[in-house]
Design brief:
The chain is α+β, with helices and mostly antiparallel strands. The protein contains 13 helices and four strands. A four-stranded antiparallel beta sheet has the order 3-2-1-4.
């Protein structure tokens, strides 16, 4: 409830500031209020354009500072537009989102330590770019010759400065996402929650660098935020890699318990794993429910992880030809998967499924011979 109240207060404050700024603009330029319908439509479109631009600038700031630090781009999203690296190629999609307007997901280079404060540059890149662009565009005002141009400059400047300042505020959304400010101030102050956050980030860095899940060292002295979906997913991966069905069931159930609080960034991946868990644990209700929720996304997912999930799903349906097809496709794209340590786990799951298929074929042949 506190999170929702904070976000409500921020939205109210944002509306008040925008309204106040518009009032000042109208007073300074002695603009009459008798706008035509055309004026209203154009101003609305200018507002949407300015928001689209400032969100892009925010994510561009993350991207450029990430590249400066040697990060690898995985995903770039603006509103419903999504660009994702899949099998070494950029894939474009139209997606639904919840709880965020933009995203620049990058993986730090192998051997990175998130306790190094240089990573603050990556998380602060969007804020820096928003504040700088919001101030610099004001220098264009003397060259603006009409109401629409001046309106766009003011809307862009205001939107950019507000986006930068709001992202600087430390808070956690209902989707378990941390604001840039929350991460930055946490890393500077080393708050109580920071060791857990940094430890989880370091685990993902190790996974991206080539350490497979079963070899990751989960230091529970630091990993205290047990509700973090990123941590739960890593623990689930480790259980998969160790072929420990009891642990798979434990962490799959924890993912299900917190699923309503997860953002749309991570939900497709969670659904994928619950489909697989349902197959491995003989939970048909999980397979049916989460495949229905993720069918469209999974159909378009052609990387190693997506093909593994589809292979297990068709095995569950008894469509062994389709299962074999997806196993073959998974093998073909395995080395292009960006999370290097996850490749070994995915290959293990594929190999185990192949063995089950071979065993079924042997049993079917034996029954036919008899």
């Amino acid at each position: 409830m506190k999170k929702k109240k904070l976000l409500s207060i921020l939205m109210i404050a944002l509306c008040v500031i925008i309204g106040f700024s518009i009032g000042i603009f109208l007073a300074i330029y002695d603009v009459s209020i008798d706008f035509t319908l055309t004026d209203i439509v154009i101003l609305y479109l200018l507002l949407m354009l300015s928001l689209f631009c400032v969100i892009n600038i925010h994510e561009l700031g993350h991207y450029l500072f990430g590249k400066l630090l040697g990060y690898q781009l995985l995903m770039y999203r603006i509103g419903f537009l999504s660009f994702t690296y899949e099998n070494g190629k950029m894939k474009f999609e139209l997606i639904k989102n919840k709880g965020y307007s933009g995203l620049c997901a990058m993986v730090p280079p192998k051997g990175s330590d998130f306790r190094d404060k240089k990573h603050i540059l990556y998380y602060g890149g969007g804020i820096i770019f928003n504040i700088l662009s919001g101030l610099l565009i004001l220098f264009a005002l003397p060259f603006a010759t009409n109401l629409y141009t001046k309106s766009f400059i003011y809307l862009f400047s205001l939107s950019s400065l507000l986006l930068g300042l709001i992202n600087l505020i430390p808070f956690k959304t209902a989707g378990n996402q941390l604001s840039d400010g929350k991460i930055i101030f946490s890393m500077i102050k080393i708050e109580q929650t920071v060791p857990s956050m940094l430890a989880t980030m370091n685990l993902y860095t190790q996974l991206a660098g080539g350490i497979r899940p079963k070899k990751l060292n989960f230091n529970l002295d630091y990993l205290t935020d047990t509700s973090d979906p990123s941590l739960l997913l890593l623990q689930y991966y480790q259980a998969l890699d160790r072929e420990d069905n009891d642990q798979i069931a434990q962490f799959a159930n924890k993912l299900i318990q917190g699923i309503d609080d997860f953002s749309t960034i991570i939900l497709p991946g969670i659904y994928n794993e619950l489909i697989t868990a349902g197959v491995l644990l003989n939970k048909p209700e999980w397979v049916t429910k989460y495949y229905a929720l993720n069918e469209k996304t999974l159909t378009r997912d052609h990387d190693l992880n997506g093909e593994r999930v589809k292979a297990h799903y068709y095995w569950y349906l008894g469509d062994f030809d389709q299962a074999k097809k997806h196993i073959k496709q998974a093998k073909a794209v395995a080395n292009k998967f960006p999370i290097r340590g996850q490749i070994s786990m995915e290959q293990l799951l594929i190999a185990n499924l192949e063995k089950r298929l071979e065993q079924v074929e042997i049993e079917m042949n034996e029954s036919l011979n008899h």
